[in-house]
Amino acid sequence: MGAMDIQGLRREYADHGLDAHELAPDPVDQFRFWFKQACDAGIREPNALVLATAGGDGSPASRVVLLKAFDARGFTFFTNLGSDKALDLVANPRASITFPWVDLERQVHVRGRVEPVSAEETATYFRSRPRNSQLGAWASRQSRPIASRADLERAFAEVQARFPEGEIPVPENWGGLRLIPEALEFWQGRPSRLHDRFLYERSAGGWSVKRLQP
Ligand SMILES: Cc1cc2nc3c(=O)[nH]c(=O)nc-3n(C[C@H](O)[C@H](O)[C@H](O)COP(=O)(O)O)c2cc1C
Predict the structure, then answer these.
(1) How far is Cα 124 from Cα 144, in angstroms, rounded to an integer?
(2) Distance from the CA of 184 to the center of ligand 1, in angstroms?
(3) H or E element: which one contains 86?
(4) Which fold has domain 10-127+172-212?
(5) How many Cα atoms are found within 13 Å in the side-chain-facing hemisphere of 68?
(6) According to the model, what pLDDT value does residue 79 have?
(7) Average of per-residue pLDDT across 11-33
(8) Helix (H, G, I), strand (E, B) or coil at 163
(9) Sorting pLDDT into bands at 50, 70 and 90, what band is 11?
(10) What is the set of active-site residues?
């Protein structure tokens, strides 16, 4: 196969299976189980997810962000609140996130509504970040144009001078967003493209699960 033979790139997915009787009744428990396996497998940035949004005009956009917390309430990431993604979510809070754990022949896909986390949660996480990352958040108007790298480094030097020591406050335009799951799909690659897919959907009494065709 030549280096550019993309059509020839294929693998038989045979590492794992996923059966209905192994599924946790609660999808967040199932996610915790798979997330731990992704961490234990040593894959790079197992908390990297693809966040898809569609703004007011309905046109979709996706990008990678890092999961920083998850629990029964949902999946939390942090970002600039003036960024394109955040503005999309103001216009349309519905979003989709995908964890592409291809090394494990797995993906988890979650859909739902996004809400801001509390100011306390944002502050707690912001304070846990390295000082230079905190300064970086102050220095960048994420997703807006800038003329040069030099201008960006000048903006960083300015915030370094503004906060030479002591606690750095949380920038007003920076914070956590939480996707509240309504549907979660766990995908496990299997031989002959007969993959295992299970979809959890929120129902009146909790969660329902169905198997989907591959
Ligand atoms: C591995 C990786 C991790 C990233 N993590 C974050 C993150 O946690 N938060 C964030 O705002 N951007 C993160 N980014 C950058 C985003 O992909 C994106 O470029 C940025 O948020 C601006 O997106 P937007 O213009 O669609 O708002 C990450 C990118 C990569 C490749």
Answers:
(1) 27
(2) 22
(3) helix 84-91
(4) Pnp Oxidase; Chain A (2.30.110)
(5) 17
(6) 98
(7) 93
(8) coil
(9) confident
(10) 193
